[in-house]
Amino acid sequence: MDAFKAGTLVLALTGALASPAFAAATSAFVADATAGGITEVEAGKLALQKSSSADVKSFAQMMIKDHGAANQKLAALAHKLDLVVPDDATLMDQAKKKILEMRDESFDKAYAANQVKAHEDTIELFQKEVESSDKAELKDFAKQTLPKLQEHLKMAKELQAKHQ
Questions:
Q1: pLDDT score recorded for residue 70
Q2: What is the mean pLDDT of the chain?
Q3: Whole-prediction pTM value?
Q4: Could you tell me if 36 and 149 are in contact, meaning their C-beta atoms sit under 8 angstroms apart?
Q5: What are the CB-based long-range contacts (under 8 Å, 24+) for 69-72?
Q6: DSSP the chain
Q7: Which of 27, 37, 79, 136 has the fewest beta carbons closer than 10 A?
Q8: Which pLDDT does position 149 carry in this prediction?
Q9: For residue 97, what pLDDT is reported?
């Protein structure tokens, strides 16, 4: 092969490798689960500031701890799988929009209702990943995380009943 053809082949391969098809993939599950986790952490921080109820503050602290840990685990898994996680600014914007939905009622009542809805949505997202994931690692993560999310939902419903 002459130098010209070899150079053309190198350029063609370089262009192909730089194309979007070879770029790191984005997983909707990773993006949605991470955004939801950040929302839980941020809403929990807000609850620690605004609530005067010990049970709300205790639940909020658990949300910060559990969802923060799950997000770290998911971020590490996404990195291992070469999946792109949306940038922090995008995720924080999504979290702020969700938190603003809590402003119409008393804070504790709104926070509890928000937590029920958020956990119902998150459980649905994780169940869908368990049922249809093409990545075994993400499927395992979702399957391992579901029981904790279901426990959170149960506790959120109890909190909601108490703060109606």
A1: 95
A2: 81
A3: 0.76
A4: no
A5: 70/33, 70/37, 70/145, 70/148, 71/34, 71/37, 71/38, 71/41
A6: --HHHHHHHHHHHHHHHHSGGGSPEE-HHHHHHHHHHHHHHHHHHHHHHH---HHHHHHHHHHHHHHHHHHHHHHHHHHHTTEEPPPHHHHHHHHHHHHHTT-SS-HHHHHHHHHHHHHHHHHHHHHHHHHH-S-HHHHHHHHHHHHHHHHHHHHHHHHHHHT-
A7: 136
A8: 97
A9: 65
* Tokens 């994780």, residue located: 126
Residues, the chain, total?
164
Token code pair at residue 34: 């991470």
Better pLDDT: 123 or 34: 123
- Give per-residue pLDDT as tens, 26-51: 588 998 898 888 888 888 998 998 89
Cβ–Cβ under 8 Å, residues 150 and 123 = yes
- CA dist., res. 42 & res. 31, Å (int): 16
| Axis-axis angle for helices 136-162, 107-132 (nearest 10) | 160
- Vertex 127, ends 99 and 25: CA angle to 5°? 80
Structural contact between residues 125 and 32, judged by C-beta atoms closer than 8 angstroms: yes
Q: Which is nearest to 94 in space by CA: 123, 124, 59, 121?
A: 121
**Direct distance between the N- and C-terminal alpha carbons of the chain, in angstroms, rounded to an integer:** 78
